[in-house]
Amino acid sequence: MSFAKASVRDAEVDGRRVLVRVDFNVPIAGRQVADDARIRAALPTLELLRDRDAKLILVSHLGRPEGPDPELSMKPVAIRLAELLGTAVRVAPGVVGPEVEALAEELGPGEVLMLENSRFEAGETANDPELSAALARLADIYVNDAFGAAHRAHATTAGVARLLPAYAGLLLEREVTELTSVRDDPAPPLRVVLGGAKVNDKIGVIERFLDAADRIMIGGAMAFSFFKQQGIAVGNSLVDDESVGAAGRALERAGDSECELMLPVDLVLGREFSAETEQRDLAGIEVPDGWMGLDIGQRTADAYAAETTGAGTVLWNGPMGAFELPPFAAGTRAVAQAIADAPGTTVAGGGDSAAALDEFGLADRFDWVSTGGGASLELLEGRELPGVEALLDRQAAGSR
């Protein structure tokens, strides 16, 4: 599908300062980057800009600091990025201010400056106009390549984009194109597999795809909200009580649609949420007291896997169980493997879905694995993303 926003490919960046919003919200362990997948995802955009002699100023959030916090400095990220780019990456002493402006002025073509954690500034999440203006003073052009943060109207995603010529990075462009295609023009038949903890987080996706998919298959802890709504015993299973009503509405909607909403028919139980806990297979779904459902059972995994084999498109978002605990990873692994083997177009949401695919070594077997958790869900629901809407339209950029 065509992308309606202006692309960095078309921006005139030679010798100009380009503020790039990246999503470098990566796990840090022992003051080192523990998983550099999001950094690597941004490399095509950064390398394109450096090849065209742009002067790069990068900005990202990291964690949820309440003001400056040395434990959440961007310095470990800059070290890893420098290794991947093969060039020096200097870290600014802050996000904005005279010292930062001076460093930006000194940049030469192809050089890279990383601003400190954007959430060190209170005005970031408030989309503060003064912070947006201070960011805009650093650069001539703005590029948003942080799809994972594009659903937030923050100073670095929306505010500054209104003040500079604003373009989409290569990753953001691909994310929007791939996910919009699944949402609006999937090759039939479409199968949707949804897991995770809360129905409320995905009710918008369920309702959207009840009108488009042939099957929606539910797994993970969210299945227990459906069971509780139906009066089925859930034992000590994780249940989001606020989602029970949404589960009921989804079941009612499914009854009026041509889409079948499939729920687990068997489970793997544990006494507690632990890899060492006592476990047992349950042939049905009535969870006894003192037990919790931690994975879908073999019959459910086989049924879900079979549904993917003839699909033209498969969308997967959310694990089928506690995949991070080895005894309860089999259901998620089986479904992920079946989708990877499916002949149709296969797309996975970000967050835990991406983590599971990395864990199983299957990420490269999917046609697209999103880098955005909440952003991918909101786009699939059909909601506008502030970080995308703030960018120049392609037609407007062409007339500049």
Give a description of the structure.
- Helix 10 (298-309) runs parallel beside helix 11.
- This protein is elongated.
- The protein has a six-stranded parallel beta sheet with strand order 5-6-4-1-7-8, sandwiched between helices. The protein has a six-stranded parallel beta sheet with strand order 11-10-9-15-16-17, sandwiched between helices. Strands 13-12-14 form a three-stranded antiparallel beta sheet.
- 36% of the residues lie in helices and 16% in strands.
- With 400 residues, the chain is of the alpha/beta class.
- The longest helix has 15 residues, at 37-51.
- The protein has 15 helices and 17 strands.
- The model has no long low-confidence stretch (mean pLDDT 95).
- The protein starts with 16 loop residues before the first strand and ends with a helix.
For this entry, give a set of tags.
400 residues; alpha/beta; six-stranded parallel β-sheet; 16% strand
Short description:
With 400 residues, this protein is of the alpha/beta class. It is built from 15 helices and 17 strands.
Give me the secondary-structure category. alpha/beta
Strand arrangement, largest sheet? 5-6-4-1-7-8
**Number of DSSP E strands:** 17
**Mean pLDDT, nearest integer?**
95
Supply the number of helical segments: 15
Please compute the radius of gyration using only Cα atoms.
22 Å
| Assembly state (oligomeric) | single chain
Secondary structure layout:
Blueprint: E1 17-21, E2 28-29, E3 32-33, H1 37-51, E4 55-59, H2 75-85, E5 89-91, H3 98-106, E6 112-114, H4 129-136, E7 141-144, H5 155-159, E8 166-168, H6 170-184, E9 190-194, H7 199-209, E10 215-218, H8 222-229, H9 244-255, E11 260-262, E12 267-270, E13 279-282, E14 292-296, H10 298-309, E15 313-317, H11 330-341, E16 345-348, H12 352-360, E17 368-369, H13 374-381, H14 386-389, H15 394-398
Parallel strand pairs: 1-4, 1-7, 4-6, 5-6, 7-8, 9-10, 9-15, 10-11, 15-16, 16-17
Antiparallel strand pairs: 2-3, 12-13, 12-14
Helix pairs in contact: 1-2, 6-13, 7-9, 7-13, 8-9, 10-11
